[in-house]
Amino acid sequence: MERHSANALAIARALSAHPAVSTVHYPGLPEHPGHEAAARQMKAFGGMLSFRVRAGREAAIRAVCRVKLFVRATSLGSVESLIEHRQTSEGPGSKAPPELIRVSVGIEHVDDLLDDLRQALQD
Question: Phi first, then psi: what are they for 6, rounded to 5°?
Answer without folding.
Answer: -65, -45
